[in-house]
Amino acid sequence: ITLRTAEALATIKTMASLPGLTVGAGTVFTLDQAKSAVDLGARFIVSPGMSVSVVDWCLANAIPVIPGCATPTEIQTAMERGLDTVKFFPAEQLGGVKMLTTLTSVFQTMHFMPTGGITAGNLLQYLALPQVVACGGSWLVKTEWLREGKFAQISQEIARAVQLMNSGLPRE
Predict the structure, then answer these.
(1) Which of 28, 64, 80, 126 is the most exposed place for a label (fewest CB within 10 A)?
(2) Contact at 8 Å (CB) between 120 and 164?
(3) Under 8 Å CB-to-CB from 123, ≥6 apart: which residues?
């Protein structure tokens, strides 16, 4: 659940109470937000940037954390703290697959979760990179679809993305 609305923390609390569901908090900017989200049931934290205070608190409290990193310096800061996965954000605006390919050639032990500009049209290009563990894309759940209650359309878009991934990725 991204912390982009006034309802986000309440939604984390509600969803965390459901059996079998692991809920995380995204778009976490501050230590207070991270603490609140975890207190309400979030099991992991994702941030748009490399907040040292958020990362350090999460690590000290055994909360998985994926900070956003856009530069080699930020990636190194994450590595110095023992992290092996970061969010590459905003991916497309930073050079997309080409930039990520360059970063992975240098940061060979780091894994990446690109978000920002990911679409059905470029998803497979990102997922083809060995160090990409996941992608995020707001195209799956458009704001207007939520506002208008178009949950069937959201489900269809998610199913289409899963079908795309299954058809385009090599099987092991």
Answers:
(1) 80
(2) yes
(3) 135, 137, 161, 164, 165
Burial, 81: exposed, middle or buried (Cβ in 10 Å; 0-12, 13-18, 19+)?
middle
Could you give the count of Cα atoms lying within 13 Å of 154 in the half-sphere of its Cβ?
13
Give every CB contact of residue 15 below 8 A, 6+ residues apart in sequence. Answer: 1, 21, 23, 41
Give the mean pLDDT of 89-111: 97
- Give the C-alpha distances (Å, rounded to integers) separating 141 from 1, 24, 153: 12, 17, 9
Which amino acid is it at 79?
M
pTM: 0.90
